[in-house]
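One-letter codes give the sequence; backbone shape is given numerically. An example follows:

. . .
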Amino acid sequence: MKNPYYKLLKIAVFFYFTSYINIAVGLTADETVYETTQEIIDRLQKEKDRLKAEPEYIQEIVRELIVPHLDFSTMSALTMGKNWDILNGNIRECVSHGFKNLLVERYAYVLLSYRKQDINYQSAIPIGEEDYVSIRQTLSRPEVKPSTIEYRMRPDGDLWKVVDLVIDDVSLIRNYRKMFNKDIKHQGLTDFIYSFDECKN
């Protein structure tokens, strides 16, 4: 499925990748974002020679460090909007899996072009009424306008999971929802669902 918001993803993907949530328990949302940002940067540096020789290895890194720590069920529900309510469990699962693979492919491709940036952090603030928090980072490098990235996260036991990413005040989930709604209106819900390879079987 082609993604008209690929350019947004290209801007967002490294920042989103750094939201990897550490499996250590007892850390605050601020601590997990800060500590794992450093861990991811170190991993990219350590693996740079292998990544240069085997670019496809980046997808393995993404699946190893990112996928288990993102709330794809919530992200899929937010992206599908009212259409999520009329899907049964099996269809929800394949759509969520397809959405995950769509993001992984984009992340893996863009991460290969990562360049070091200075990162400043702002403390987590509560949002909504379900213990969600928002953590904002400002990323900058010489002669480039700074960018902001906001991680919207929710508690899940002793962990924190990302449910949305806001780049320069533009929500990734909101943009995908617009794209999906447009495709559903054009194709119909059934054809849209089967446009995901994961839903064809």
In short: DSSP finds eight helices and five strands in the chain. The radius of gyration is 17 Å. The CA atoms of residues 149 and 167 lie 5 Å apart. Residues 6-199 form a domain with the Nuclear Transport Factor 2; Chain: A, fold (CATH 3.10.450.710).
